[in-house]
Structure formats: C-alpha cells, structure tokens
Specification:
single chain, 329 residues, mainly beta, Neuraminidase, 43% strand
C-alpha cells in the first residue's frame, strides 16, 4: 500500500476518521479512530469526466472531498464523482485577473498537502500567486483567498511574505502553510523560523520569530537566475525544513515539526516545537526519526506514522500526548 503521507482528521457525527491518500490506487482510505477499523475507500476515476489524477491539496467535509488541482478546485462525492468545479475567479472575484492558484513551480517532493479547511465556518483558504510579470514578481502583493461553501462568497486578504522570496529560490520550502483560527490567518514558511499572523479585522500582519535548537533560523536558498528563476540544488530537498504549524483545540497549544539535514542511509532527526495559545515557544520534544514529519491532531493526541509502514491490511499509528512540564527549551 503506497500511501502519500498527507493525513487529515475528518469528523462526522462526532466520530473521528483518520484519512490518508493512497497514490498507487488513487484513492483515500478512511479509518475510524473510535472503532479502530478501516471504514471506507474513496476511489477516484483515472479517466472520463470525473477524472482526478493531479492532486496538490485535499480535505473532506460534509461527505465531500475538496481537491485543489493546479488551476481549480473540484468537489467530489464519496463515490468519486465530480459534482462541481470552481476557478479562482469564481471563488474570489476581487482577486486581480493576473493571480492564479499555481506557484513558482520547479522540482518538488512530497507536494501533496492538506487543504486548509476551517469547519467552524465552512471555509477553505488558498494561496494565490501574482503572474502579471511571469515568475519575476510572483510574491509581489501576496494574497490569500478564503472561500465559504455555505455563503458561496470569497474574500481576498493582502498578507505579508518574507523578503527573502524576492531574491532567493527555495523550491518546496517557498509554499506557506496556513491555518484559520477565529479572526486570524496563521501561516509559516518551511525555510524560516517565524510565524505570521494576519488579523482580518485590522488587516495587519504580525510576525513572531523563534529559535530552533538544532537548525538555523533561516534556511539558505539559491539565487534567482534569469526570467524563470528556477535553480534547484539537492540541499533544498534534503536539508533543513520547518513543517506545518497546527493548532490543537484539545490542549489549546500550537505545534510545529522541524527536520535536520538528511544523513545518507540514516533516518532524519526531527523535533517538535510547542507554542502556547499566544504562539510563544514553550519548548521542544525530540521525535522518533523513523516517523514521518507529518502528523494529524485528534482527541487521542498527535498521530504519526512510521515512514516504512506500508502494510496492506493494517494501519499503525503512533500517538504522542504532550506534557509541557517535560519539554526542553
């Protein structure tokens, strides 16, 4: 079972389901965390009008799968049928016509991500990119789009991006990870030890910087060269990385994993940073290097998978319950 590790927790009738994508079968597998059993497979079509072959981000809500492809959003029922497609202009008409959903591009790994869905309001949020001058000014006037499936209305937010993106290339590390919480859009970039908080009411962006104990605060990028600006080196793939920031409503804490450099034939050292409700760093926890650098947050705790676990008939999850008093600074 080849599983692309972009796990999510889907909640339905107060039951939590662990969901992961099987890229070999082009399907989603749902496991009940209450009964600890496999429940359902959502199989996608590989041809025809319901074709789903390029997924960059996904999530589930109201018995629908929301899939972000390179230039549009698809709503798919649990039978694998595409029930609706939406373009950025349809979802967020106030965004300038030069913007689209595709980033700078280039070689990437592990590029399936969780789509940022906010169940409290029925909203999803997307990164958008300025293509007026091709890739030259792609991060000029950065903008996020929030689309509400209940009201069918979208809102554009002019946010702040790190200055490094104007003159350096980071490949997969350029793409911001986003979560919604109340009136805040909280996001981070994999190349930098910083958390960005956009306040929807004041329309201002605040930046909280922190220090990690084992890797630099800013990962070294590569200079942009020529119009396309795509210089790729192996150290961008296998070097330092700050992963997705996430919020745990059960503990009122924020978490962010980060990875050290890959060492040939050895598992990559990983560490979990814990932040309080105000996004102030409380400490760090060393994570088993054999685990994937992705986790899902459930009422049971933080759920990890072993990176070498590809059994066909079982799914093994490793549960971490954070004890703040035992952390190192």
């Amino acid at each position: 079972m080849s599983i692309h590790n972009a796990p999510i927790i889907y909640r339905n009738d107060n039951v939590e389901f662990y969901v992961n994508y099987n890229n070999t079968a082009n399907s989603l597998n749902l496991y009940s965390l209450d009964s600890m059993a496999f429940v359902q497979k959502i199989e996608f079509y590989s041809s025809g009008p319901n074709k789903v072959t390029i997924m960059t981000e996904y999530n589930l809500f109201d018995s629908l799968v929301v899939v972000k492809k390179h230039n549009r959003i698809q709503l798919i029922n649990f039978s694998g049928e595409v029930v609706e497609e939406l373009t950025l202009k349809q979802m967020c008409p106030e965004v300038d016509e030069h913007y689209d959903l595709r980033g700078r591009g280039g070689a990437m790994i592990g590029n399936l991500r969780r789509l940022f869905f906010y169940p409290a309001t029925g909203s999803v949020i997307f990164r958008t990119y300025n293509k007026e001058n091709g890739y030259e000014d792609i991060y000029k006037n950065p903008c996020f789009c929030e689309y509400n499936f209940d009201t069918r209305k979208g809102t554009a937010y002019r946010v702040k991006f790190p200055g490094e993106l104007s003159h350096e290339y980071y490949g997969d590390l350029e793409y911001p990870n986003i979560i919604l919480k109340g009136d805040s859009i909280i996001y981070n970039f994999p190349f930098k030890a910083a958390v960005y908080i956009y306040n929807k009411k004041t329309k201002k962006t605040y930046v909280d910087e922190f220090e990690a104990s084992h890797i630099p605060s800013v990962v070294e990028g590569k200079p942009l060269t020529g119009k396309k600006g795509l210089v790729m080196k192996s150290e961008i793939f296998f070097g330092y990385k700050y992963h997705q920031i996430d919020y745990d409503p059960h503990t009122n804490l924020y978490f962010m994993l980060y990875s050290e450099k890959d060492i040939e034939n050895k598992p990559t050292p990983k560490h979990l940073i814990v932040f309080d409700k105000s996004l102030k760093k409380l400490g760090e926890i060393d994570i088993d290097p054999e685990l994937y650098p992705e986790f899902a947050i459930s009422k049971r705790g933080l759920l990890f998978r072993n990176k070498d676990d590809y059994h066909f008939d079982t799914l093994t999850l490793h549960v971490l319950n954070v004890n703040v008093s035992t952390m190192t600074n």
